[in-house]
Amino acid sequence: MPSSKIKKNIITVRGRERSLTPKQRSLFSNLDKYEIDLTSLKKDNIHKSKKIFFEIGFGSGDIIYKQAKLNPENIYIGIEYYRKGIAQLIEKIETTKLENLKIFHGDARRVLANIPDEIFDEIWLFFPDPWPKKRHSKRRFIQLEMIELLHRKIKQGGKLLISSDDKNYIAWTLSLIFMRNFFNWLSDEPSDWKHPNNDYFGSKYEKKGIKSDREPYFLKFLKI
């Protein structure tokens, strides 16, 4: 079995963070209003009465915001490293006064390690940084130990959804998934990778890739 110890010194994000505008700094300062005690969700059995969805690296929050707005009976939790994206999502939340969307700021690896097991109905990883150079492969978010960790955090019968417009990242992900008996790939025919979930909303990053002739791939896995 792979080690469950997550390497905390591995860089999984890159690029210099852009400066926040005064308005964005003000919005980001409200972050504590939108955080949630994940331990209490399991302690109080809320995870049994509510569907809980977790998005890793939500960017500007387009997808998770639309899902939360459409499904007020569910709980949506997102984590993002860049403050600008968090400020953008907080502005969306405050504009519509959503109460079922919560946010974490920081490294998803560290946050996941401290989350109770079997709490999420779905975990989403949409268009992560592919780290395309071979020498940077250890920086990709999907690693054997991460697959094991994600498996533990998903409820029995829950799903792991991963998308990318980088063929190498998709091949990398599938090769690692197939090395362990943690997930079944939900694919009945070759074209299934072209189709996201029926209620999926595309992000601006996906649309940007399509304009650059990068075709998106959608992988759906069921926890075993």
Provide structural commentary.
- By secondary structure, the protein is an alpha/beta fold.
- It has one domain: 3-Layer(aba) Sandwich (Rossmann fold), CATH 3.40.50.150.
- Helices cover 33% and strands 20% of the residues.
- The chain is built from nine helices and seven strands, in the order αααβαβαβαβαβαβαβ.
- It has helices spanning 22-28, 38-43, 46-49, 62-70, 83-96, 108-113, 144-153, 167-177, 204-211, and strands at 52-56, 75-80, 101-105, 120-126, 154-164, 183-185, 217-223.
- Strands 3-2-1-4-5-7-6 form a seven-stranded mixed beta sheet, sandwiched between helices.
- Strand 2 (75-80), helix 5 (83-96) and strand 3 (101-105) form a beta-alpha-beta unit.
- It starts with 21 loop residues before the first helix and ends with a strand.
- The relative contact order is 0.16.
